[in-house]
Design brief:
Layout: H1 2-24, E1 33-39, E2 42-48, H2 54-71, H3 79-84, E3 92-94, H4 97-112, H5 122-125, H6 140-147, E4 156-158, E5 161-163, H7 177-191, E6 197-201, E7 204-208, E8 217-222, E9 231-237, E10 241-246, E11 251-254, E12 257-260, E13 275-282, H8 285-298, H9 300-308, E14 314-319, E15 324-326
Helix pairs in contact: 2-7, 4-8, 7-8, 8-9
Length: 336
Amino acid sequence: MKKKSLAALALVLALFLGILWHLHGTKESKKPLERSGFLFDTVIAVSLYDKQDEAVLDEAFQLLEQYEEIFSPTKSESELYRMNHRGSGVTTWKASPAMLDMVKLGLRYSELSDGAFDVTVLPLSSLWNFSGGEAKVPAEADIETAVSKVDYRHVRIDGDVIDFGDDFTQIDSGSTAKGYIADRLKDFLVEKGVKSAIINLGGNVLCIGEKAKGKPFQIAIRKPEEHSNEVVKILDIDGLSVVSSGVYERFFDLDGVHYHHILNPRTGYPYQNGLVSVTIVGPSSAECDALSTAVFSLGREEGMALLEKTEGYYGYIILEDGSILASAGAQPGKNP
């Protein structure tokens, strides 16, 4: 089943990149220097448009591997895993700068959404299996127990120490870490003199500069269905990130109900609020990552209100009926 899951992820990325590179196609003979891999439980890719330097890609992927050793939720030696399994009676954790930044980001959006998005949702999200295998809804008693352990208000930060207030509160990095890592990878590439590149961490897309002089990258928003290669909107992107959250990424269907990975921390079940995807565009991939999940969690009206008061960011909400809502300041985009 693991191989099946990997194959599915590879297909999703291939479909996405196929659209992306097709949209970028020009008569230029110079192709980008590309490399892909599997990290953070997803397929990733880095493409350099103005540098043909394998050494830069070598260092870039070494940096990505270092961040996996910090943020992996499943590797027992990672900082995140050790922090979340800190042991009976242990309520504090002396965190690395990267971990502090990621937790602060999650706490800020937990507060902005009044807990509709909650960075401490891991006891709940770990009950649900959206990665393949038997489609099964967790037992009601287990969900109730997990919900009682989710509350971002338990967490306090003092200097470089995270105080959880108890020994069971855990941090879920699923809506924050990839965006944070994409931003740090951008910093590294820019330091190396890269002026034109695309970073794709499992659909978290960050563009450095523009594709060619005067020509922005064109990023496609796909129809929010599994394996779909249908494009609903094309965006011109210059130096910004594009991040989507939706019901089609990790899910299963059982007895006529669509269960997806964006969970309501108050009920323990996936949100059923009429939204199927949220796409956010802005300068920071980390902000886009957290904001996309927070907007989805808040729903149509409250989510759009949060987005429109977030300066420098805009986005699109796709509803179950296929209609698209754009925030104030959003570019109209192009029809495919």
